[in-house]
């Protein structure tokens, strides 16, 4: 190996030691810091938000079911007396009445 290539090699090693290694170490430390501080905070927030959304969905489902239970005798006869085409078009939003079919008196 010539003296010039040895000098180049030494210069590259010195530059790597001065610039690349500290930057790499800094990136590793920053990644660790983010992983130990930001990730738990974000996970906790996401978890709380998901729980809140699930509770809200359960509450809405309970209120909807109570409304159906109170009003099926009034609303569902029209649905059951309608033709299949009407059920698919005009009474589409009353499809929940199918859950109450067994509670209804005989329809025409």
TrEMBL record:
Transmembrane annotation, as ranges: 12-32
Domain of life from the UniProt record: Bacteria
Keywords for this protein: Membrane, Transmembrane, Transmembrane helix
Name the record gives this protein: Conjugative transfer region protein TrbK
């Amino acid at each position: 190996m010539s003296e010039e290539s040895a000098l180049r090699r030494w210069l590259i090693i010195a530059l790597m030691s001065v610039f690349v290694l500290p930057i790499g170490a800094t990136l590793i430390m920053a990644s660790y810091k983010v992983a130990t501080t930001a990730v738990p905070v974000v996970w906790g927030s996401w978890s709380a938000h998901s729980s809140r959304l699930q509770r809200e969905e359960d509450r809405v489902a309970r209120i909807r079911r109570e409304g159906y239970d109170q009003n099926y005798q009034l609303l569902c006869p029209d649905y059951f007396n309608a033709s299949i085409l009407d059920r698919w078009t005009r009474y589409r939003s009353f499809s929940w009445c199918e859950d109450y079919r067994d509670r209804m008196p005989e329809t025409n």
